[in-house]
Design brief:
The structure holds 3 protein chains of 3 kinds.
Chain A: H1 2-7, H2 10-18, H3 24-42, E1 45-48, H4 50-65, E2 77-81, H5 108-115, E3 119-124, H6 158-165, E4 171-176, H7 182-188, E5 191-194, E6 214-219, H8 222-232, E7 265-268, H9 270-274, H10 278-293, E8 297-300, H11 309-324, H12 343-354, H13 357-370, H14 376-397, E9 402-406, H15 422-427, H16 433-438, E10 442-449, E11 455-461, H17 467-479
Parallel strand pairs in A: 2-3, 2-4, 7-8, 7-9
Antiparallel strand pairs in A: 1-3, 4-6, 5-6, 5-10, 9-11, 10-11
Chain B: H1 7-16, H2 23-40, E1 64-65, H3 75-79, E2 90-93
Chain C: E1 5-7, H1 14-17, E2 22-35, E3 72-73, H2 74-86, E4 90-91, E5 94-95, E6 98-101, E7 111-114, E8 121-129, E9 135-147, E10 151-154, E11 159-163, E12 170-176, H3 183-200, E13 212-224, E14 227-230, E15 234-237, H4 242-263, E16 273-278, E17 283-288, E18 299-300, E19 307-308, H5 311-318, H6 325-336, H7 340-347, H8 350-361, H9 366-384, H10 395-406, H11 412-425, H12 429-435, H13 444-457, H14 459-467, H15 472-486, H16 493-504
Parallel strand pairs in C: 15-16
Antiparallel strand pairs in C: 1-2, 2-12, 2-13, 4-8, 5-19, 6-7, 6-18, 8-9, 9-12, 10-11, 13-14, 13-15, 16-17
Classes of the chains: A alpha/beta, B mainly alpha, C alpha+beta.
The complex binds zinc ion.
Residues 41, 44, 46, 58-59, 61-62, 168 of chain C line the site of zinc ion.
Chain lengths: 490, 101, 506
Amino acid sequence: MSNEILNLNLIEIAHLISTGEITSLQATQITLDAIEKHNPNINAYLSVFNEQAIEQAKKVDAKIASKQTIGPLAGVPIAVKDNMCTAFGTTTCASKILENFHSPYNATVIEKLLAADAVIVGKTNLDEFAMGSSTENSGFAQTKNPWDTQRVPGGSSGGSAAAVAARMCYAALGSDTGGSIRQPASFCGIVGLKPTYGRVSRYGLVAYGSSLDQIGPMTRTVGDAALMMNVIAGHDERDSTSVNADLAPVADYKADLCGQIKNLKIGIVTKFNEGATPDVCGAIKDAIAVYKSMGAEIIEIDMPHFDYSIATYYIVATAEASSNLARYDGVHYGYRNKDADELVAMYSKSRAEGFGQEVKRRIMLGTYVLSSGYYDAYYLKALKVRNLIRSDYTNAFEKCDCIMMPVAPSTAFKFGEKTADPLQMYLSDIYTIAANLAGVPGISIPCGYDSQNLPIGLQIFTPAFTEHKMLKIAAMYEKNTNFPKLPEMK
Amino acid sequence: MNNKIDENTVRKVAKLSRLALADNEIHEFTAQLSAVLEYIEKLKELNTDAVEPLAHCLPVKNVFRPDEVRDSLGTDKALANAPQRDENHFIVPKILDEVSA
Amino acid sequence: MTKEFVVKKLVFNKLAKIMSDIKYKVIVGLEIHVQLCTKTKMFCGCALSFAQQPNSRVCPVCLGMPGSLPVMNKQAVEFSILAAMALNLEIARFTKWDRKNYYYPDLPKNYQISQYDLPISNKGYIEIPLESGQTKKIRITRAHLEEDAGKNTHTSGDYSQVDLNRAGTPLLEIVTEPDMNSAEEVRALAIELQRIVRYLGVSEADMQKGHMRFEPNINLAITKDGIEYRTPIVEVKNLNSFRTIERSIIYETQRQLDEFIETGKTLKMGNKSTRGWDDDKQMTVLQREKEEAHDYRYFPDPDLVPVVWTDEDLERIRKNLVELPIEKRKRFIDNFGLSSYDAGVLTDEKSLSDFFDEAVSAGGDPKRVCNLITQTGLKIANEKGCKVNELGFDAKALAQLAKMVEEGTIGASSANIVLAEMAATGQTPDAIAQAKNLIQKNDTAEIEAAVEAVFAENEQAVDDAKNNPKKAQKALGFLMGQAMRKTKGQGNPKLISQILNQKLGI
Ligand SMILES: [Zn+2]
């Protein structure tokens, strides 16, 4: 019985709770039990709010019982990545430097989840400050891929992806700066959506690369992602970079899912697909064939600057990060080295001891590219190439409705496989990074499995602020295939 | 392969970043950052003379807030996470770099 | 305009022997920070505060808490544009925010949100009044908007305290060209700028409270044996009054001259130093020997969006521009014939100059109104600790009083008594003059009768006045006094004097 409930998707459980067929307390308790059972092995969560979740579940049940108006996520257990501020529990970013940090406020997305009557069950693991592609850079725990615990869940939203795949929640929020939602979604066989930059408020998301970061849903179905978008999308007066309704109205993403898009034009870059492993390449081809069978037209497009996106990203993101992470200095909050007897030593030791290697590496790189004498050669150059990368998308979207390509060149890799060579790890983000630089939305949906039964993701891009269209295109595929299947949890 | 940056530069950058790095870290970072910078060199292949820098993908400008007072946190909440404090202040170790006569 | 000093100085070191006389000129440029008087901070809704409990007026944004984001205060941006307009600066149609990165405990994010290559305004000037009565234009390089830092207090122990109440306060930074050549000019600029921002209502500009902070960059141009030398630039900090600004420049001028004579040190790249003003010792003290190679790593702040102005926006803001003190001063001199001194007094504060203007347009004679204000009004206001326009009577009443003097209804000295009473009771000048029996007699027949009676009683004096040039003046004064007495002090002195002269035939 409890497994059946756990295997329900978000829309299904939300429906059953809202109609009183099962209570939020039941669903929440079952979820907390699953966390208790699986989390010691999977390490998806850094913190779990047992009592608070039960409390909230009871409150929602009371609301339902007394026929009050309820939100679209009423009573459903949801997880959030631990780089979103919550006024309860801790907000650590999986960093020792914020180990005991208690945020005095809730991120806007947290407020929105609570306003939708969701039950927030816990906060999930990530690469420290969202810097990484495997969650191996967490300062606290190694999250395992529920499909194969010898392998990484992807990153940086690896904890959220693993929690959703392992049925330790019905949906989760992740954040995506260079692929951190889409790549772990692909590695864990779930749906991950990075919205258009400006679609979801960043207020309360601990910044990594401010001009690239976006919060998005990680779910088991496309419909679930649409429902989550209904809850979190929209303008926020506390985030100057969130877009208001005049410029781009928020759609009803869930309602928009029905029906097909006729004469869908799909842009592909053949050589990109061929850059992936044969299994991945094959799965993408098959997926595109499915669309073809539904009447889609495949158009070969050119994205001449795509290949420069990693180089551009590692300048822009690290430059912003070096400044964003300057505040962790042991003065106002966070870890402090207590031995230093003068200020500069206190700063330098606290930061050296509080940050992990990857974070330090990126701060160093970002500081270097901004420092005097190098700004023009690196940072300014990168901003110009960023413009070219964006125009690649703009030009492509004049010829097609969407672009499809793999999410990652391979399926989930083994622990330690890429940690020795940071550059190799960076290069694995080749398919996802350009969308962040261009600000366009992207989604990863399960589209097959490799020879070792590891999930493969298909990535779909549409123009800025057309998430409704992107979700619809993704849903077309989902309806016509047997995906997704989920990893067995023992 | 020649390193794109030397250890001296890495030390300077570490100082600028307020990171007290151990010698082995300096050594390791020099090699790793050199490899990344070497890779980044590929941007030079592109002629960007006529391209505008793009700091932001958004078509957004003039985002203002009215000059209206909102609640502040108050001293207790403000200092709640402070590693060291007295009644009303954050406390930091003595500052040496101000006078260097 | 520039003052050149020639000094013949006896010095006892070797260099001095070959240096019989040198000419020098002080060169000063200013970096000025003006705190804007918005209700809330630059990027968050915390109220601006002075002398509040430390760290009480803070929120996640101004504390630099993880995840918090800044949003521009519209009023602060518009205040800064208004001030820039008043300083004749070109307003940039496109302006953006940059991060200035450096570590300091009073800077919670360890970067300051400021403006680097695209400030709100460029290239303007401020016209300053000099004691000579002339004015001088000082060029302004740029003005930009930024957020203030908090405050560190160095305790006697091994620790410093950090208070972030001030962190995030909107600051307008104004940078001038090195166009000032004397302490007087620098002081004049400081005072004039204070007047301007107060006129505009964009800053309280109280120096003691740190609302205005001046950091002069000072060096000397020295001509010796036909060759010009420049001494190293010194930036002076901790100046919290107009007096200390002036003194620091006088002090630095002498110090740099002495140093040059002793060491011959001249301006080179990187030998700019920072000195602090020590008010107890009345001298500048070295703070930082060399301008450290600061590497602020400026880059555009990705959390904020640009500001783009249209003509309509700028016109709307320009409507809040008021007549500036220097323009007002000129108008008072040119149109009303006031002295430069009086015009200066009346235009020192906008409220006073407006009150004066209002009284004049209500029909008061400008000079009479000016005298009433400067001779009595300001004195009473000073005693009461308020402004002249807050004394309890309006400009119309003041104009009325001026008119009564003008028409001879009351005497000039009585007017000051009436004014004091107006301030005390708020009654009309007419009612006060009546009640206090200060109304002058203007009845010609009555005065003629009085004068004739006086003549009859004082024949000798009449004779002296008419025929004895040695005693005429004194006799006339005596007769005048007697006539005033006959009218019980209420006769219009002007009229009495007129009738006296007429009857005496002089
Ligand atoms: Zn605040």
